[in-house]
Amino acid sequence: MTAKGKVLYGLDVWYDDATQEFTNVGAPIQFSEDFQGAGHTATLPAMGSPVAGYPWVKKIVGTPTGVAVVANGAGGQLSMALAATSEKEEATLTQNDQLTWDTTKTVIYQARIKLSVLPSAAGVQAVWGLSSAWIDGPDNASFYIEFGCTANGAVNMRVQDGVSQRSVASGVTVLATDWHIYRIEMDASNVLHFFIDGVEYSTSTAPLTWGATGANALLQPYHSVYKPSGTGVATMLIDCIDLWAPRT
């Protein structure tokens, strides 16, 4: 690993050239999840019934394979998977609608994710990033900043700030065999920057901006695979999730 120190939006960070990820950030507000240790039981608590001291809940609709920690997963892993059953299904990891990340404060989101089964049919979605309170269907959330794939491995950059809903192609198509580092940064001008493996795919000529303020700007980490009907499948593996922000 070759780590380089730099300052990003007033935060001191270390950048790993080998993985294109931030490995340590000196931020007043920070959250890091690697799904390591015995506290991560195979059966996560259900949405609406959180367990004290544990940050995650699962939202299950239908009979998907579910949301579960991978037994002996290298580095600590969590899996969310849809089944091939012909029905509406959802497997989602959230923080029980505790909306605490103020996206007006130059929040940084980073996750290492593999879509080990790509969304296989029209309507099947995988999304990961930040979102407002749970609602039926990722597209129906009131506010979000996230990556997403629909019906294949083509990655989109998705923004809903209450004024406009945008889904912009990154130009990157992922394979089911590969892990990638996904990062979202917001600068002081409320412009969003989307990175995959250290390369920015949002553009300066047509920037993705963020207009939500006040309570509307408070979001939670949100990771989901979803289908409204049919036999389509998708599986998301999460190795780690990190968030950082200044206090003010």
Structure description:
The chain is mainly beta. It has a single domain (about 30-245), classed as Jelly Rolls. About 0% of the residues lie in helices and about 50% in strands. The protein contains no helices and 20 strands. The protein has strands at about 5-10, 10-15, 20-25, 30-35, 55-60, 65-70, 80, 90-95, 100, 110-115, 125-130, 145-150, 155-160, 165-175, 180-185, 190-195, 200, 210, 220-225, 235-245. The strands form three sheets. Strands 4, 6, 7, 10, 15, 16, 17, 18 and 20 form a nine-stranded antiparallel beta sheet that branches. β16 (about 190-195) and β17 (about 200) form a beta hairpin. It is globular.
What are the salient characteristics of this protein?
248 residues, Jelly Rolls, globular, 9-stranded antiparallel beta sheet, mainly beta
Number of domains: 1
Q: Which CATH first-tier class would you pick?
A: Mainly Beta
Q: Which residues form runs of ≥5 with pLDDT under 50? A: none
Q: What overall geometry do the principal axes of the alpha carbons give? A: globular
In DSSP terms (H or I, runs of 4 or more residues), the helix count works out at 0
Termini separation comes to 32 Å
Give the beta-strand count: 20
What class, by secondary structure content? mainly beta
Mean pLDDT: 93
Strand fraction equals over 45%
Tell me about the largest β-sheet: 9 strands, antiparallel
SSE pattern = EEEEEEEEEEEEEEEEEEEE
- Helix content percent band: under 10%
- Rg from alpha-carbon coordinates: 17 Å
- Do you know the CATH architecture? Sandwich
CATH structural fold name: Jelly Rolls
